Structure formats: C-alpha cells, structure tokens
Give the backbone structure.
Amino acid sequence: MRTSQLLILVPMLMQVALTLTVLVMLGIARDRDLKQRGLRPDDIALAAPEAWGEDARKLAASYKNQFELPLLFFAACLFAHTARLVDFWLLLLAMIFAVSRMAHAAIHVGPNRVMPRFYAFLVGLVAVALMWALLAARVAGSGF
C-alpha cells in the first residue's frame, strides 16, 4: 500500500495545534489570574510558578510538556518524510502519538489524575519509540 509522504503532516499539525491551543489557554488563565487579583503583568513577571493560580500552573506545565517527548516525534516525522519512509504503519503510529498527546494534555489541564495521565503518556512514548525502531530497521535494511 502506497502512502502519500505528505500525510505525515496531519499528525504533526495536530501536535502543533495542541501546543498552540495550550499556549492560548495559558494566556487566558494568566490574564484571568491577574484581573482577579488586581495585578499588572509587571507585578508578577518574575514570580515563582506558585504565584499563579492552579489552572495557570497546570497549563504552564502542560505547555512545557509539549516541548519534551514531542521533540522525538517531530524528528521522526521529518526524518521519515525526508527519507520517503512514510507508510501506513508509520502514519498509524504518528496518529496514535498525536491523539495520546491530546488525551495527556486534556487530563493534565483538567482533572490531572496521575495514573490516567501516565497511561496517556505511556501510549505516546511507546508509539514514538516504535516509530524510531521502525525507521532504524528500515535504514539498517536498506544497506545505508
């Protein structure tokens, strides 16, 4: 089955959209905190994370998470696209990763239950690890 190499952009764009959504939500939460407490941005600009309300702290942590494991995801997707190695299996793993990250973020900024959040993280971790294993096997098998 021939998969268009450009389809790998779909899960990548899903992850980008998630990151930007969390960032916008963080800005809204911080603005709400400032207004509720009658503060100006300069009053809290260099404050410790604990100075913000719970929602803003959870969103800040979730936003930071979008630059950790997803780095390996983006690198795998770009490598696969550049090397023309995108197929059904790689695309499926990439979609699983993107959906797991959405679930992880929803749990993180919502109820923040540790075990469900961990399981969502674990699904993404396994997906990205399998992506890299698949890519490594293909490169090794190509005589490259």
Summary: The two ends are 23 Å apart (CA to CA). The helical segments are 9-37, 41-44, 54-65, 69-82, 88-109, 114-141. The chain has a mean pLDDT of 93.
